[in-house]
């Protein structure tokens, strides 16, 4: 099939390259000429494991091309994916749909023959109706079916998630699109991924409901972690104990510094707004948003408490800056709130992240960037592990301790074991774990 993808950002690029890998003929479109030139040379602008190899292989096989020429690519395509950004609108938290609608207008003028136009971007309920309306107004001759096909892939595991999804959701209001979308995803039947057809509005809502539910799940275990600290229990065992119940499930129960990234914060806020718009408030999600915001800020207070209540003039080393490992994405990363909170209290920050420092330099001020975890430890009064990159999982603890001024270690991802850290002589604070060997509790509530 001939497929055009409008928007060669994260979702567009992964979608395009994976569909090309399925054997489709794919053209990825972007307005940014320099990005397209780079991609043509095989240079992928984002860090995502396996992506550049897959881009190069499919370009070499002649199935994947890049262009800035939307009319030509869309004119030839049977299926057009809209995969441009839907950032939070400044001020009101609504999803900003101006890019989606601008693309809809351009697509309307370029389509030839029956074309399925798919919104891949995360868009509020009713956006598909508006896209269809725009296309019909701009070009009444256009023969299109507008489809909703939300993307559930995770950064850092994007290709794997695309090729082995738990499900594919396709929202259609025009029966002709069913067969076309089934053909697009036919190679995935081999992986037995269920293809769930719904109406368009339902499909649009599924994406928000899924992300909000996961954000709630994380926020729930984070609150349980606080309770564990106060009550003298262990959140990891609570998570295991409840996760073994199939109705709850074991995933997304890792307590930490709060969720970040390009999706959960934006989509939860947008769902709150959607609920308000329809007069059907999403109260659990509203509360989730505010708890998570508070939590990110509370993490700097946890570090200050671990440092004996004072960080003025102290050097705090930060291990990991990105919102999660295996990405260079710094959007809404908890590290940003933690660093600002510590700087506000007079701490000096040294930080290292395997992939995130380029983006971080644009977002934080007065931070010294180091070359490794051990560089960060040099002379530090405390270390804070914020992102659980693999290379932080097996640090040489003796070496680390010998480099530090005082061996205080705050582990916001529960990577290490309390008794192990105590054995190495660290004053160790983690999330939601009360360790009797150490006899120490640090409660967020008490700070
Ligand atoms: C998420 C959804 O998982 C994906 O389906 C959707 O398409 C986009 O949003 P992503 O933003 O890439 O994907 O990250 P994810 O791996 O889901 O993690 C989101 C945040 O939650 C991270 O900050 C992570 O550290 C945090 N998290 C996740 C926890 O704190 N605990 C957990 O148990 C899981």
TrEMBL record:
It catalyses: UDP-alpha-D-glucose + 2 NAD(+) + H2O = UDP-alpha-D-glucuronate + 2 NADH + 3 H(+). Keywords: NAD, Oxidoreductase. NAD(+) binds at residues 30, 35, 86, 122, 155, 266, 331. Its EC number is 1.1.1.22. The active site is at residue 263. Pathway: Nucleotide-sugar biosynthesis; UDP-alpha-D-glucuronate biosynthesis; UDP-alpha-D-glucuronate from UDP-alpha-D-glucose: step 1/1. It holds the Pfam family UDPG_MGDP_dh. It comes from the Bacteria. The keyword Oxidoreductase applies. One of its GO terms (molecular function) is UDP-glucose 6-dehydrogenase activity. GO terms for biological process: polysaccharide biosynthetic process; UDP-glucuronate biosynthetic process. The keyword Oxidoreductase applies. InterPro entries: 6-PGluconate_DH-like_C_sf, NAD(P)-bd_dom_sf, UDP-Glc/GDP-Man, UDP-Glc/GDP-Man_DH_C, UDP-Glc/GDP-Man_DH_C_sf, UDP-Glc/GDP-Man_DH_dimer, UDP-Glc/GDP-Man_DH_N, UDPglc_DH_bac. Residues 317-418 form the UDP-glucose/GDP-mannose dehydrogenase C-terminal domain. SMART domains: UDPG_MGDP_dh_C. It is an enzyme of class 1 (oxidoreductase). Substrate binds at residues 152-155, 207, 252-256, 260, 324. Belongs to the UDP-glucose/GDP-mannose dehydrogenase family. This is UDP-glucose 6-dehydrogenase. It comes from Devosia subaequoris.
């Amino acid at each position: 099939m001939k497929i055009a993808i409008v928007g060669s950002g994260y979702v567009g690029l992964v979608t395009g390259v994976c569909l090309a890998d399925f054997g489709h003929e794919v053209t990825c479109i972007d307005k940014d000429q320099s990005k397209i030139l780079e991609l043509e040379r095989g240079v992928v602008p984002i860090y995502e494991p396996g992506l550049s190899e897959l881009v190069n292989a499919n370009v070499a096989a002649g199935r994947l091309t890049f262009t800035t020429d939307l009319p030509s690519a869309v004119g030839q395509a049977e299926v057009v994916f809209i995969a441009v950004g839907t950032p939070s609108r400044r001020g009101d938290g609504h999803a900003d749909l101006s890019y989606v609608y601008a693309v809809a207008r351009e697509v309307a003028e370029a389509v030839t023959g029956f074309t399925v136009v798919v919104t891949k971007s995360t868009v509020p309920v009713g956006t598909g109706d508006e896209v269809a309306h725009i296309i019909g107004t701009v070009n009444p001759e256009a023969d299109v079916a507008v489809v909703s096909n939300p993307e559930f892939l995770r950064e850092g595991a994007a290709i794997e998630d695309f090729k082995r999804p738990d499900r594919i959701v396709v929202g259609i209001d025009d029966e002709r699109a069913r067969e076309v979308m089934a053909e697009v995803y036919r190679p995935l039947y081999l992986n037995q991924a269920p293809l769930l057809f719904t109406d368009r509005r339902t499909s649009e809502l599924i994406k928000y409901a899924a992300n909000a539910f996961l954000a709630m799940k994380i926020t729930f275990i984070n609150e349980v972690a606080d309770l564990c600290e106060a009550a003298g229990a262990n959140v990891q065992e609570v998570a295991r104990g409840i996760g073994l119940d199939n109705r709850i499930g074991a995933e997304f129960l890792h307590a930490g510094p709060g969720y970040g990234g390009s999706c959960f914060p934006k989509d939860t806020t947008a769902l709150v707004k959607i609920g308000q718009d329809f007069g059907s408030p999403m109260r659990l999600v509203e509360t989730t948003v505010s708890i998570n915001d508070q939590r990110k800020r509370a993490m700097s207070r946890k570090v200050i408490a671990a440092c004996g209540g004072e960080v003025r003039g102290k050097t705090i080393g930060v291990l990991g800056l990105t919102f999660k490992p295996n990405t260079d994405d710094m959007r809404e990363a908890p590290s940003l709130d933690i660093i600002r909170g510590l700087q506000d209290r007079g701490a000096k920050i040294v930080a290292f992240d395997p992939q995130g420092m380029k983006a971080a330099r644009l977002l934080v001020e007065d931070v010294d960037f180091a070359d490794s975890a051990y560089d960060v430890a040099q002379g530090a009064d405390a270390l804070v592990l914020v992102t659980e990159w693999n290379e932080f999982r097996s640090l040489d603890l003796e070496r680390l301790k010998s480099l530090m001024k005082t061996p205080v270690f705050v582990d916001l991802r529960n990577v290490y074991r309390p008794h192990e850290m105590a054995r190495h002589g660290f004053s160790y604070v983690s999330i939601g774990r009360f360790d009797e060997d150490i006899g120490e509790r640090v409660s967020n509530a008490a700070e």
